[in-house]
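Hi R.,

Here's the input for the flavin-adenine dinucleotide complex you asked about:
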Amino acid sequence: MIPGAFSYHRPANLADAVKLLSDLGEDARPLAGGHSLVPMMKLRLASPAHLVDLHGIAGLKGIRRDGNSLVIGAMTTQHELLVSEEIARSVPILQEAALLIADPQVRYRGTIGGNVANGDPGNDMPALMMTLGAAYRLEGPGGAREVAAADFYQGAYFTALEPGEILTAISLPVPAAGHGHAYEKLKRKVGDYATAAAAVVLTMSAGKVATCVVGLTNLHETPLLAADAAKAVIGTSLDAAALKQAAAAAEAIMSPAADARGPVEYRKHVGGIMVARALQRAASRAR
Ligand SMILES: Cc1cc2nc3c(=O)[nH]c(=O)nc-3n(C[C@H](O)[C@H](O)[C@H](O)COP(=O)(O)OP(=O)(O)OC[C@H]3O[C@@H](n4cnc5c(N)ncnc54)[C@H](O)[C@@H]3O)c2cc1C
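And here is the predicted structure with flavin-adenine dinucleotide in place:
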């Protein structure tokens, strides 16, 4: 339970942080809220020789509306998402999902940037970011670039982040007014990671689904977009047959690990149920 020795750095600006990370190379890791990295270090599953704390860098925090987009600084905490009036107004699914992460203690420290950069299949925000069509702004020794959330996740703990790069902000298009949304998460107990979870954002027109996106958490080594599940309900009134078809289409792309949360077949089965429930609840909220 005691981490290995490491050096602690607290740069005052982004350029210094990028330089430190690229000079120190693979032995260095950015430190955000520390609620994934520090437990990994205590278990000796990670032993970085250098931690580059991002808390001293101005400009990495905050939530602002930029036209039809919402821009969220990487160091914005999960608690700050929960109390944001802008998020309550424009992207309420973010608050629904944030409230299902861990407990208040973790949410006061844990950041959205750390959650999406971590690459753990159990993190809740990545599938949600894919569902919302978000993009990540990355700043590295070669300058800044933007990567779509849907292209960011390459495997468990493998992402598109290059050595020395820092995720500075997330931008996402504000969903259409009157959209329906739901994040359904099955967990063994309060504070646990998902056994299976599904995010849905949809619009309805004359009682039928007009547009729909479905995302899946902890049902594969990366977050997934369930495109065929969404296709199965578009144009329907979400009758029992359409829901069944959507759940089956989602289950067909799931390949969860068998672990303490249950065997593969069980997790796929409850994953399908999360999809059907999220679709129904999202539709009930659409105007
Ligand atoms: C008891 C417990 C229960 C939890 N339950 C859940 C849960 O149900 N769902 C869930 O989603 N999460 C859960 N978490 C994890 C929590 O949400 C973490 O806070 C989050 O995963 C990581 O955010 P962080 O700011 O703490 O990042 P850190 O732990 O500081 O960093 C995580 C990783 O991301 C990298 N990193 C961090 N920020 C950046 C950045 N800006 N740019 C580039 N790389 C960066 C770090 O180098 C590290 O590799 C739980 C944690 C605990 C302790």
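One thing worth noting: The pocket of flavin-adenine dinucleotide is lined by residues 29-37, 39, 54, 74, 101-102, 106, 110-111, 113-115, 117-118, 123-125, 161, 166-167, 191, 193 (CB under 6 Å).

Cheers,
M.
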